[in-house]
Amino acid sequence: MTRTVSASVLSSVLALAPAPGWCAASLERYTLVIGANSGGANRPQLLYAVSDAERFARVMIELGGVAPPNEIVLKQPKLHDLIVALDTLTRRVADARKRTPPVGRTEVILYYSGHADEQGLLLGDDRYSYRTLRDRLDQIPADVRIAVLDACSSGAFTRVKGGRARPPFMIDEAADMRGHAFLTSSAETEAAQESDRIRASYFTHYLISGFRGAADVSGDGKVTLNEAYQFAFNETLGRTVDTKGGAQHPSYDISLSGTGDVVMTDVRQTTATLVLGEDLEGRFFVRTASQELVVELYKPRGRLVELAVEPGTYEVRVEREKGSVTARAEVVDGARVAIDPRQFGPVAMEPTRRRGDSTRYAITGRNRIEMRLGSWRVHGPPVPVHAVTSPGATVFFGEIVDVQGDSAASAFGGFAYTRFVRENLAATVAVDGVGVSSDASASGKTLWTGTAAALAIPVGIRWNPLRGDHTTQAFKPFVAAAIGPVARLANRSVVLGRAVSAESTARTRVGGQLGGGIDVFAGRSFSLGTSVTYNVMSNFPERDGVWRNFNGVQGFKRFAPD
């Protein structure tokens, strides 16, 4: 099974604005943040890689000391865009080191969230190898280079050039670290997972929660690289042990000389703070008024946690063994709001998705255009078929395939658009045309000729009733229902002697369809299918050609290059 690297890992190039509280000399930080939901035609679209990148970039600006001009954000980039961004980053850092007075220290943080495999990052149909990335980062003249990769198999990045995990580095009051630190969201053979509940990848979600203060174990208001990584590791592993994707182990390769630790965020820079007091205990979920989950952590009793948030209204939910409780807090600009235990009141395997898992037949969020060919069997007595031999006789020339008793079958064709809302649910709209029929009749010196065609535009839904993991199933049965207008267009000409007159009529009725079928997927981008539906509609006011309605069984085949 092909593993795809959801790279929230090549961390943003960070250039920290001067932060006297962090180090004696001035420090400038640069970030390059990359988010890519697409990893090529044969890989499923990620849902949260781009939004993860946006959240990472935002917290670096708010709390990470990055000046907006020092930030580069790429969304759905091509390989060329990444190469240009790395060149731009290298040039900016080199220019900063030449300034007078010189910058005391420069730091670069590169964050990547998207697809990857064991060899490198996947940007659309292109690959950027880990070795090339490591070499490129080494060329940036920064004192500290940090890369964060959130992806399946991203642990392979820390093994390039003999990199290996080391014990956590020591922390002291100094800040003279030099070298590199590479963090990855998963081990070399593991899948990185994203969750619909938190609307993010696990690793990035907990890393950002840590940056906002959840990882500040020392309580000094500063979140170091070591604190953030340890928090993200523990939370990611703990929350994925029982998921469908299995336990996920973040990894790292750190080669830093000197003493101290790199401070990633300073919670004290925020203008709004939400405080969880020492007497509170449990797993906390902090959401905005729009239900965006901004922080998640487990807080033991006796520890004070200060969370840097944006001004606004927040819902704080605590999960405990005996149930959940919630409280609301209004945090205004410049305020420090503490949650009181008396504010809480009572309020019951979450779905996950492997980032880059080879879910070859996943269709959620995809659009499909299909070509349809089939037969539409029509009820109602057909017009007799014979030649004009005497005044008043009727002649019919049409695309009648079969005439039996009181019904006739006619060919039809058309196109349909399908939007897959979920793996088992889709919305459809089709345009179907029934073949042209013609008739003629003569009486005395008068000759009548006419043609008629029909057009149906059904709008409906399709539902796959089977249970299980639809992303791995090539055969996808469904039941379907649709409703829409059915239009009949008729043209009739009358020849009387040398005089010729013509008239056109259009009649519209509402018709409905109910049926089912099956799609067979050769891949995510091509499928064949067959369907049978029963059509119901009211009669047209008069007969043109053979039919007054299109009731009956309709069967057709589909050819669908998605």
Please explain how this structure is put together.
- The protein has three domains: 241 residues, Rossmann fold (3-Layer(aba) Sandwich), CATH 3.40.50.1460; 76 residues, Carboxypeptidase-like, regulatory domain (Immunoglobulin-like); 195 residues, Beta Barrel (Porin).
- It contains five helices and 33 strands.
- α1 runs parallel beside α4.
Q: What is the makeup of the main sheet?
A: 11 strands, antiparallel
Give the radius of gyration: 33 Å
Which blocks of ≥5 consecutive residues have pLDDT under 50? 1-25, 160-174, 379-409
CATH architecture of the largest domain: 3-Layer(aba) Sandwich
| Helix percentage | 10-25%
* Structure classification: mainly beta
Give the termini separation.
Answer: 23 Å
Any descriptors?
562 residues; mainly beta; Rossmann fold; Immunoglobulin-like; Porin; six-stranded mixed β-sheet; 13% helix
Quick structural gist:
With 562 residues, the protein is mainly β. The chain has five helices and 33 strands. Strands 23, 24, 25, 26, 27, 28, 29, 30, 31, 32 and 33 form an eleven-stranded antiparallel sheet that branches. It has a six-stranded mixed sheet with strand order 2-1-3-7-8-12, with helices on both faces.
